[in-house]
Design goal:
With 909 residues, the protein is of the alpha/beta class. Helix content is 50%, strand content 17%. Residues 1-40 and 831-839 have low confidence and may be disordered.
Length: 909
């Protein structure tokens, strides 16, 4: 729990080790765009270099002995690497280029790179030298720091003859002395100006990044971001600035609640560090990226990257290792909290990591308040392992070590869970009631949720099911009513791992007591909630500048109010009864201010954040909801007239045996399935990765018996298919899928006779601008081309011409989208593999969130020819609905027996 309740600071001012230069910039993804240095002729040549202690205009790299250079050019170009005063020690291919490690053999050297394609040549030069010796004595800087008034400080500064040393003194003042913020900002501005005048590129940019860090600490997020704006110049500026900005902007975005943007910035830094960074840069950039994954609830990616960073941490960071080990243990504990049925085994034992962390902290003789936090995480590990007695002992040890006020509520929560595990239900009820009182006093929805869920479990243990239901329902209501606040809080990543628990317990209780219709409503609402939250995060990243400023100002004000509330509450223990009542009344006024801020934040969204709605199914449609309960799964079959339920063991779905899954999930309801005109599946978490529509039922695939759709339970939106029918056809934007091009042309020729207006964009015509302009005018979209899923980020996009993309964020900010979309590309609705996370926000889900009524998409790669066959078969019908999709997939299955038609799914709102 080393990150819980604590705002991270790692990674704002990155190591000064990288510079990028591009000559005749090649086609690349947006996060790899670098400075373009015009050349009259010559192949594209992109160069990055790292390993510098300092970077100067020139470019000039100062290094003790080594520099790394990454070179990328066209496949037809011949690269000549000329070295003077350096020698090559190793080379490797990475990210489409070659990294060379060069050793400096003289006091100065030069790297000369030429890329030749026939007679055309592109060139790059880098000067390399050993660090210059500073002549200014250190006591001069000490005199500046020791000065007690402004006039003495000014005199001490003027006494420093070397401008570089004077700038260092100003930088040191800003870092080390207590002074008003504006004065520190002035010192850093002056330091940056001196550095720039002397050509010290890296030092100048570090001073600017530190200014942003100081502003961020005061929650002045817009000011921090605008301070960094000059570090992102247009083509022709210094590319080092862009790198420095990525690192700094990642921290600003993280603290202002924009987790997706933070991830994007840290990913860029990480990729560059992989190309030309030494162990230090690779370690810290990997840690930053791991934190970004952790913030988004991607536990497995966070663990993998954390493990990589651990191996890279230098010996000089020996005492940073225990904190890192502790956080790795915390990530694994969170992953297990999010995976109650142990669907995925990570191979990491949190108790072992905690032991190593404890030993290393003790060995370094530096605890910094970590001991109590470690003891609480030992307690959670014991609870997960079924050792509640051991957990209670660790909670007692945490008390003796001194629990930080920020962690007090978490300690109470663990104490209550230990009592529940020991069946001490009356004691648990008392603990959680006290926690609820405290949480309401500090107006903290996360702590209130913990308390309500825990007390509900205590009431269940005491046989008071009605009281348990009331507490679970209050906990669920908090998730809907305070969704924005819960997405901004300091513990938002931690809370994301557990917030499905209240729905599991409530669904289980309602089903067990025979209230099946109510259980279905709870299950449907809970499975739609994460998709809405993911849509909220994507909207934050896509806010236009005017709304971005208002968002950052509102979030900063919220954090300051929230901190003031927490600090005020910590003083309650020493207050008299009368003073306590007055303090609580003042906090209620602050809560009103917080509510207004949150309403303002919601109003800044491009699209309103509608509550989850579980509307009645249309007549003739049978719903099948698969939802986790307390110890296994519930399967509900429901329509307008009747609801049935069956409980199945957890392992049945986890093992994934097709016959066993079909028998458990479909078998009990076979007669009702055959009588339905459509079967709508509502799958929660892990079962989303199962192709239920392709399972065999009584010897035939389910889809051959009844049309099958996958429901998302999104709120209704104004109709997007009003007006005359118009179709946007996007075909083979990357010009490398012949079948997709044939598919598009056949469909374009068939559409007009049916009265549809067709906008046809093929190859180079299918640019991002053209597609975005045409989408709001279309009632239907057919895309035949490539899609891409970032395996770590689970970010989906359609690949368009000229290396451009249509991303999830692009779709969510459109004014209008077609009512129907056929996304005939690979992984356009990526379903989970064997992993645990809340939601996959793919491009298909983005269209549905924005207002589409139905989307046919794929959950994995499909062959080009099969995609063509499915699309042609589908468009033999006048509409894309459940029966038409079922008929198309049946025809493809009959014609191509080995085809992976099961990769296609029809999603509906």
């Amino acid at each position: 729990m080393s990150e819980r309740g604590r705002r991270g600071s790692a990674g704002l001012v990155g190591p000064l080790l990288v510079m990028t230069v591009v000559v005749a910039c090649p086609r690349s993804e947006p996060h790899d765009r670098s400075t373009v240095v015009p050349a009259a002729i010559g192949p594209p040549l992109r160069v990055e270099f790292g390993g510098c202690q300092e970077v100067f205009d020139g470019p000039i790299c100062e290094t003790e002995d080594r520099v790394s250079v990454w070179v990328q050019t066209s496949s037809t170009a011949v690269v000549d690497l000329g070295l003077v005063g350096l020698e090559t020690t190793s080379a490797r291919w990475i990210h489409g280029g070659r990294t060379h490690i060069l050793t400096l053999t003289a006091s100065t050297g030069q790297v000369r790179i030429e890329a030749a394609d026939g007679a055309a040549v592109s060139r790059f030069r880098l000067a390399v030298r050993r660090p210059q010796v500073d002549t200014e004595p250190t006591p001069s800087i000490d005199a500046v720091v020791a000065a007690t008034n402004e006039s003495d400080r000014r005199a001490a500064l003027l006494a420093i003859s070397e401008k570089k040393m004077r700038a260092w003194a100003l930088d040191y003042l800003a870092r080390r002395t207590k002074a008003p913020l504006e004065r520190k900002l002035d010192w850093l501005t002056r330091a940056e100006a001196i550095h720039r005048e002397g050509g010290f590129v890296s030092r100048a940019h570090e001073a600017r990044a530190l200014r942003a860090q100081l502003l961020m600490r005061e929650e002045r997020f817009t000011d921090a971001r605008e301070t960094l704006a000059p570090l992102r110049p247009a083509a022709g500026g210094n590319p080092w600035e862009r790198y420095q900005a990525w690192w700094s902007l990642g921290a600003v975005a993280r603290e202002s609640g924009d987790a997706n943007a933070s991830y994007g910035h840290y990913e860029r830094v990480h990729r560059m560090a992989e190309r030309i960074g030494g162990p230090d840069l690779r370690a810290w950039s990997t840690l930053s990226l791991a934190q970004a994954h952790q913030l988004l609830g991607r536990w497995q990616a966070a663990l993998r990257l954390s493990n990589e960073a651990l191996a890279l941490l230098p010996q000089t960071a020996r005492c940073a290792r225990p904190a890192h080990l502790h956080n790795m243990a915390w990530i694994e504990l969170l992953r297990r909290e999010a995976d109650p049925f142990r669907i995925v085994a990570s191979g990491i034992e949190p108790r072992r990591l905690l032991d190593r962390s404890f030993h290393d902290f003790d060995d370094c003789q530096y605890w910094g308040g970590e001991e109590a936090s470690l003891m609480l995480d030992y307690a959670l590990a014991d609870l997960q392992a079924g050792r509640p007695g051991g957990a209670s002992d660790f909670i007692d040890r945490a008390e003796r070590a001194g629990i930080d006020p920020r962690h007090r509520a978490w300690a109470q929560h663990l104490e209550g869970r230990a009592a529940l595990a020991q069946r001490k239900y009356e004691a648990a009820r008392g603990v959680f009631t006290r926690l609820l009182t405290t949480a309401r006093a500090v107006l903290d929805p996360t702590k209130q949720w913990w308390a309500l869920v825990g007390r509900g479990q205590a009431y269940e243990g005491l046989g008071e099911d009605e009281r348990a239901r009331e507490d679970y329902e209050r906990a669920e209501a908090l998730l809907d009513d305070r969704v924005v606040e819960l997405s901004l809080g300091a513990g938002r990543a931690d809370f994301a791992a557990v917030r499905g628990r209240s729905a599991r317990l409530l669904t289980d209780l309602l089903a067990r007591t025979g209230r099946l219709e109510a259980a279905v409503m709870v299950g449907r609402r809970s499975r739609a909630r994460p998709l809405r939250t993911a849509g909220l995060l994507e909207q934050i990243s896509g806010l236009p500048e005017s709304r971005r400023r208002a968002w950052e100002d509102s979030v900063g004000a919220y954090i300051r109010l929230r901190r003031a509330l927490d600090q005020d509450t910590a003083r309650d223990a020493g207050r008299a009864r009368s003073a306590l009542a007055a303090a609580r009344a003042a906090r209620r006024v602050r809560q009103t201010q917080i509510d207004r801020l949150l309403q303002r934040v919601i109003g800044l969204m491009q699209r309103p954040l509608e509550p989850a709605v579980s509307a009645p199914l249309p007549a003739g449609v049978l719903g099948l909801l698969v939802h986790p309960g307390r110890s296994g799964w519930w399967v509900f079959a429901f329509d307008r007239d009747r609801t049935e339920a069956r409980a199945i063991p957890a392992r049945t779905l986890i093992d994934g045996n097709p016959e066993a899954v079909s028998a458990a999930v479909l078998g009990p309801f076979a007669a009702r399935i055959d009588a339905a005109r459509e079967l709508r599946l509502f799958l929660h978490d892990w079962p989303r990765g199962l192709d239920l529509h392709a399972l065999s039922l009584d010897g035939a695939p389910l889809l051959s018996r009844v049309p099958v759709t996958y429901g998302l339970d999104l709120p209704p939106v104004p109709a997007s298919d009003e007006g005359p029918r118009s179709v946007l056809l996007v075909s083979d934007p990357r010009a490398d899928l012949p079948a997709a091009r044939r598919e598009g042309r056949r469909l374009a020729a068939r559409m007009p006779p049916r009265g549809a207006k067709v906008v046809y964009l093929e190859g180079d015509a299918a640019t991002a601008q053209a597609v975005r302009a045409a989408l709001p005018e279309a009632t239907a979209l057919h895309f035949a081309g490539h899609a891409r899923v970032n395996a770590d980020r689970f970010d989906s996009s359609l690949l368009l011409a000229n290396g451009e993309r249509l991303t999830v964020g692009d779709v969510l900010v459109l004014n209008r989208v077609p009512a129907t979309a056929v996304l005939s590309g690979c992984e356009t609705a990526r379903a989970p593999a064997k992993t645990v996370r809340e939601v996959d926000l793919g491009i298909a889900q983005a269209f549905l969130l924005r207002g589409a009524r139905r989307v046919l998409a794929t959950t994995r790669p499909v062959a080009d020819g099969i995609a063509e066959a499915v699309s042609v078969a589908l468009h033999e019908s006048a509409e894309v609905d459940a029966p038409a999709a079922a008929r198309a997939l049946r025809r493809v299955a009959a014609r191509y027996p080995g085809a992976d038609w099961a990769a296609y799914r029809l999603y509906v709102r």
